[in-house]
Structures are given as C-alpha cells and as structure tokens.
Write a structure and sequence with these properties.
There is one protein chain. The chain is built from 17 helices and 6 strands. By secondary structure, the chain is mostly helical. Helix 8 runs antiparallel to helix 11. The longest helix has 38 residues.
Length: 485
C-alpha cells in the first residue's frame, strides 16, 4: 500500500478499528489457528506505527512502555507456537491481515512525512498523534478480544471431540496449548484496556480534519469499485468474493440513502418523494443485499474466506470515501453537517451511478448463481445452509440433503460443487436482490431531473492525512489489502 491508495493516516486507523470490531460479529473456533498465525504481524505493525508517531519531548512515557509490554507478550506467544508446532503452518486470517496492513500503511505515511528528530510540533499535531495512538490501541484491544473468542471456542470444540484414539491424541496436545495462548491473549487485552479506560473519548475529540473531498471522491470510488467488481466476477466467482460484492453494494445503498436524506432535509431534494419512494426502495435494497452477503458468507470457512486483494482494496477506498461524508466520529453525521461537506445539488448523478452499478452487479450475480457451474463451497457449510433453509420438513420427513454429499466429503469438509438445494436458494434470493436494486434505481428517477456528472473526480478528490503529514492525491490502488465486511 502506498500514497496512491488515497487514504490518510486517520482513515487507515479508522479502517483498522472498524475491521477489528467487525471480527466480533463473524468469528468462530475454526478461525483460531489462522488468527493466531496472523496476530504477531498485527502487533508488530502497530508497535512500529506507535514508535513512528511523534512523542512529547518530556514525560508521557507510560504509553510507550505499555506497547513494549504488549509486543513482548506477543513475541513470547510466537516463540511458544514455533516451539510447540501449534498452530501448524497455514494461511493467515485475511481479516486480521487487513488490520495489520492498515497499521503498516499508516506507519509508512507517518514516516514519510515525519520531520527531523526533536523538531518542535504544534499542539494540534501532538493532540492528533495522541488520538492516533488511542485509535491504534483500541483496535488492538478489540482484535485481541476477537482472537480470544476464537481460541476459547476452538479449545471447547477440542474438548468435545469424540475420544477416538488418533483424534484424542491430537486433542490432548491442542487443549493445553490453546489454553496457554488464551491466557496470554487475556493478559494482552487487560493491558490494552488499561490504556483506554480514561482517555478514549477525550482523545478522539482531538482528531484533526482538514477539508473534505466532497462528492468527487465518492463518485470516483464507486466507479473504480464497479469496474473491479466486474473484473473479479469474470475471473474468480467464489462465495467469498460474491459476499464482499453484496456487502459493499449494501454499503453503497446505505450511503446513497443517507445522502438523499440530507438533501431532502436541507431543501435540495423533495422531502415527500424521499419519504414515500426513495426511503422504502433503498431500505428494501439494503436488506436484500445484506441478506445475500450473509448467504454467500455462510458458504465459506476459514480456508475459503480469501477475497481478491484488488476487490478488497477498491472496497476499502470506497468505505473511506463514504465515511468522510456521512460519519462524524463514531456516529452518523447530522444532515446539515453532510451538506457542509458536499454540495448536494450535485448529488443526483452520483446516486444514479451508484444505483445503476448496484443493479448491473446484482444482475450479474444472479446469472452466476443460476448458470455458473464452477461455484463450490465446503461440504459441511452447504449441508448446514440447506438444512437451515428447510422450513417445510416435518419431524417424520426423511432428510435427504446428506445424500447430496458423500460421507467422506462431509468428514473432511472438502470443497465441492454447489448442491442443487443450495443453488436453488441462491438463485431465488439473488433474483429478489436484483429486483430490489432495480426498484432503488427507478426510485431515483422520481426525485431529480438529469444533471451534469460531477467533474474532476480525481482532481477534486484530495484528502489530507492527520496533522502529521501532507495532502495525498487520490489515485488507483497500488498495493491492495484485505479488510471490511
């Protein structure tokens, strides 16, 4: 990731924090080995960022010593894992890797724009650095809790395994090793929490903002996202990629709805049309896309959750562009504040671009669900998916879903082609999602007459980093990284 990514230090840290929070909603015991493999990189990059941020000339060293302690706990965990061979070698957790890469990119930006050692800093810059440290520590605190949840569930699963000789021998090794890792993660979480206990809210009030890129940056981000999503669909239609596409489409719909609401509130758009046509249509589209994201996501496991890095990069830049307009710290921005950040008279073409992109992607996903023979998923995930969707089967009815997959496939949870009951559900709900997107696209036509597109997206879309660095031009992603739901 480089300056061409277009996100500031503050936006990178906000992404790390948000991605860490998202882990709490989507973590299981199966994720524990991959998360433990990745945890060391997360903490190392956070510690390097912490060290790169300017410190006060005198005093205030407690936070630095605390980070040294946290890094030492993680290094001991890593050495123990290498010595014990648990967890064994394998793929990293893509979601935690996204947090690590955000810390690394923020570190690179701070280092690139750092002044000479000992150089005097303004009060605003020092407060901003303190806010950056607080945001970093909070992301570590939440992420450590998520990893702890995964490890605890993993250990519990091992304890509940049948006492078959070979399995039980492996289990007896995994339980104490997992318990030891959990104890160290708990200590890590408590230390990080001690830093945040009395400073989280106050320090974030000092975060620096210097201008807004307006609708130009958002329009650019949607266009780039749409292009990359179509490329990803054409090259690699996996449930993980399709879940990301549906989830990001829901984010675009939600952003469009909030912007139109701000326009209606401030008199730029007709409030009656918004209430009667726009809001219902967009809310239905958001629900439909969120539902599709859950469906596709349920057809993945820890080994098949990898998303196209270029798709992740486009999604991350889109999220940064939306947060800049519609968020105010940890809450949604007031409509009047949104109107101050962007000229809502130019909103119509942006929303139209967003809804048309959503409809074309939803239609393509429907075609993939219907006709693409290369779709596959883990066997147990497909079986659970189909059984959870069975509402009509009575207690005396025969369960034939298991016959669609061989016992060996289920035992080893192999990745197999989609079974027909699963495909039928996906086709039905993908069709519904595409119709809801069409409804949102049609509702927009009732609100505005055509206007000229926003001009100069990239030129207008300049975003400042924290007070520590300089303006960075928004451009295409150079080093993608996995990340947001």
């Amino acid at each position: 990731m480089s300056a061409r990514d277009g996100r500031s230090v503050g936006e990178l840290l906000l992404h790390a924090d948000t991605a860490a929070r998202d882990l709490l909603f989507d973590v299981t015991g199966e994720d524990a080995p991959a998360m433990l493999r990745t945890w060391g990189e997360v903490v190392q990059n956070a510690a390097e960022l912490w060290q790169a941020l300017p410190a006060r000339p005198r005093g205030g060293t407690a936070g630095g010593q605390l980070m040294v302690q946290l890094e030492a706990i993680t290094q001991r965990m890593h050495r123990t894992q290498l010595r014990q061979g648990w967890p064994s070698a394998g793929d990293p957790d893509e979601r935690l890797l996204s947090v690590a890469e955000s810390f690394g990119a923020a570190r690179d930006l701070v280092t690139a724009h750092a002044g000479a050692p000992g150089q005097a800093r303004s009060l605003a810059a020092m407060r901003d650095a303190h806010a950056a440290r607080t945001r970093t520590m909070h992301a570590l605190y939440v992420a450590a809790h998520a990893v702890s949840i995964a490890v605890r569930e993993h250990v519990q699963h091992l304890r509940e395994m049948p006492r078959v000789d070979k399995q039980w021998a492996r289990t007896t090794r995994g339980i104490p090793r997992g318990t030891e890792a959990l104890e160290r993660l708990t200590a890590f979480e408590q230390l990080a929490g001690s830093y945040l206990s009395d400073r989280f809210v106050g320090s974030l009030r000092a975060e620096h903002r210097d201008g807004y890129a307006g609708l130009g940056r958002l329009c650019d981000a949607i266009t780039r996202w749409d292009l990359q999503a179509h490329r990803t669909i054409a090259a690699n239609s996996t449930p993980a990629n399709l879940a990301t596409i549906a989830r990001t489409t829901a984010v675009i719909n939600r952003t469009s709805l909030i912007l139109v609401r701000a326009a209606a509130h401030t008199g730029t758009a007709d409030p009656v049309t918004y209430e009667q046509q726009i809001a219902p249509a967009f809310e239905e589209a958001i629900r439909a896309q969120s539902h599709m994201a859950r469906l596709w996501g349920s057809l993945t496991n820890a080994m098949t959750r990898k998303v196209d890095p270029k798709l992740w990069a486009a999604a991350e830049q889109l999220q940064a562009a939306t947060r800049e307009l519609i968020h105010d710290k940890t809450a949604l921005a007031d409509p009047t504040l949104i109107a101050e950040r962007a000229d809502l008279r130019d909103l119509a073409p942006v929303v139209k671009v967003a809804t048309v992109a959503g409809f074309t992607l939803a239609s393509d996903v429907r075609e993939i669900a219907t006709h693409h023979t290369g779709l596959s998923a883990p066997a147990r995930a497909m079986l659970d998916f189909a059984r959870n969707a069975e509402h009509a089967r009575g207690p005396g009815d025969e369960d034939v879903l298991g016959e669609s997959l061989s016992p060996t496939d289920l035992q080893h949870n192999r990745v197999r082609p989609l079974i027909e009951p699963v495909r039928a559900i996906l086709v039905r709900d993908a069709y519904e999602a595409s119709m809801r997107q069409a409804g949102a696209s049609g509702a927009v036509l009732a609100l505005w007459t055509p206007r000229e597109p926003v001009a100069g997206g990239s030129a207008a879309g300049r975003v400042r980093n924290l007070a520590l660095d300089q303006p960075v031009p928004v451009g295409p992603p150079a080093r993608p990284g996995p990340g947001w739901k």
